[in-house]
Amino acid sequence: MELDPQYQIKEACGVFGIYDLSGENTAPSVYYGLLALQHRGQESCGIAVCDTTGPRGNITFHKGMGLVSEVFKENTLQDLSGNLGIGHVRYSTTGAPTLTNAQPLVLNYAKGTLALAHNGNLVNAGALREELERTGTLFHTTTDSEVIACCIARERMTSSTVEEAIRKTASRIRGAYGLVIASPRKLIGVRDPLGLKPLCLGKRDQAYVLASESCALASVGATFIRDVRPGEILTITDKGLSSDCSLCQEHRAHCIFEYIYFARLDSTLDGISVYDARLRAGAALAKAWPAQADLVCGVPDSGVPAAKGFSQASGIPFGIAFYKNSYVGRTFIKPTQKERENSVRLKLSVLASVVKGKRLVLVDDSIVRGTTIANLIHMLKAAGALSVHVRISSPPFLYPCYFGTDIPSNRQLIASSHSAEEICSMIGADSLGYLDIEDLPSMAGDLPLCRACFDGRYPMDIETNRK
């Protein structure tokens, strides 16, 4: 994956929620859950908590710009007390990267208070926002997440329960969403009917947990129960669980890029191990694009398991060609091209003794603009590699995403205007092979997939004026 944040494809967000029926404080658990989901968003984060036995509307929260460990210190967490909590890590795909747009969103309205955390993007947010504004709604952020929250608040005025209001809202919004909602006596999880965004359920003693990925359940000692069903509204109260599947449908379209790149290696999404999926992608590459080489290596981190799969299928030894410096800070501000290129060298260095005199297969998960992979190939050859055969564990990116993945417009994608042969020459590789789009279903265990960023076949009608 492109290592320079300017050239990196990013997820929208990660969400986490916990309701401890025994009354224990949940803020520390939300904190650890967000740490486990940090890979899904690094711009901002937040935690909102409430005491389900206290007065209604007693939600307290804290949000900030930066990483979870930067925003939350011990004294900050001590100020957050409640047995129901939700949290959010964010990377912006709609709405500016500002504190105003950080989540969870906390909304006070005539029927009470709710806090909402959202992963994904709506494709009809603009029309819904205009409709709400015409009837007097004032928006404080530029996110589609606030559109969802305001729709719920509006529907709640004529609904007997918040679940009914959420169901009415879910029937109107279109796009991708994994939601956790705190409505002071309830924790509610909602997943879009196509299953574009992941959401799962776990349990720890008397506490129920909702999270974008199963790795976050493990981080707080919770046992995975199941994935939230696409279209399901799952409610947790002091009486236990209840499920509304009235919006569930047969048609599904799980995001393939969760398995290619976004999700953590130790997560399982919709019954599919992320690690095993990446091994299968590497094996498929080896069969479709064999190479005469001495060593297979991967670009850290997500390219490494695919490289392992390539090695196992090809019989070519697997090796580590790069050292990744985990202590380099985020380098979003790099005003010159030279500084952007130097940032790659700060994060990765070549193990010269490993690659010198070797013919290499270099596996990465994608090529966006080609800048980073070209730098890595140059670094490998400067360290003595005889040849570098690049293998990519996804098909070429040709189309933008509208569902919460920050894939840029076509004109910014190198594969949309250049052939594989041209890209190979541009990046300085000795050969280049992409995963065949027909290998994607077997990679993801034959799940029904959204692969629109590769073939342009979107699972729903979309607005063409992408934000």
Question: How would you characterize the overall build of this protein?
Answer:
Its cofactor is Mg(2+); [4Fe-4S] cluster. The active site is at 13 (nucleophile). Strand 12 and strand 13 form a beta hairpin. 29% of the residues lie in helices and 24% in strands. Helix 5 (144-156) packs across helix 6 and helix 9 (274-288) crosses helix 10 (303-314). It has helices at 27-36, 68-71, 74-78, 125-134, 144-156, 162-170, 214-219, 257-262, 274-288, 303-314, 337-347, 352-355, 371-382, 414-417, 420-427, 440-443, 452-455, and strands at 13-20, 44-50, 60-65, 84-90, 105-109, 112-119, 178-183, 186-191, 200-204, 207-211, 223-227, 233-237, 240-244, 254-255, 268-269, 272-273, 295-298, 322-324, 348-350, 359-364, 387-392, 431-434, 449-450. The chain is of the alpha+beta class and 467 residues long.
CATH class of the largest domain: Alpha Beta
Radius of gyration: 23 Å
User: In percent, how much strand structure appears in the residues?
Assistant: 15-25%
Helix content: 25-40%
**Secondary structure tally: strands:** 23
CATH architecture of the largest domain, by name, is 4-Layer Sandwich
The coarse overall form would be: elongated
Give the mean pLDDT. 91
**Largest sheet, strands/sense/barrel:** 7 strands, antiparallel
Oligomerization status of the protein chains: single chain
Structural class given helices, strands, pairing? Answer: alpha+beta
User: Number of helical runs?
Assistant: 17
CATH topology of the largest domain: Glutamine Phosphoribosylpyrophosphate, subunit 1, domain 1
Q: For the terminal residues, how far apart are their CA atoms?
A: 24 Å
The name of the CATH superfamily of the largest domain reads Aminohydrolase, N-terminal nucleophile (Ntn) domain
- Domains, number: 2
Which blocks of ≥5 consecutive residues have pLDDT under 50? 1-10, 330-337
Side-by-side strand order of the widest sheet: 3-2-4-1-10-9-11
Domain Glutamine amidotransferase type-2: 13-239
Cofactor: Mg(2+); [4Fe-4S] cluster
Function: Catalyzes the formation of phosphoribosylamine from phosphoribosylpyrophosphate (PRPP) and glutamine.
Keywords: 4Fe-4S, Glutamine amidotransferase, Glycosyltransferase, Iron, Iron-sulfur, Magnesium, Metal-binding, Purine biosynthesis, Transferase
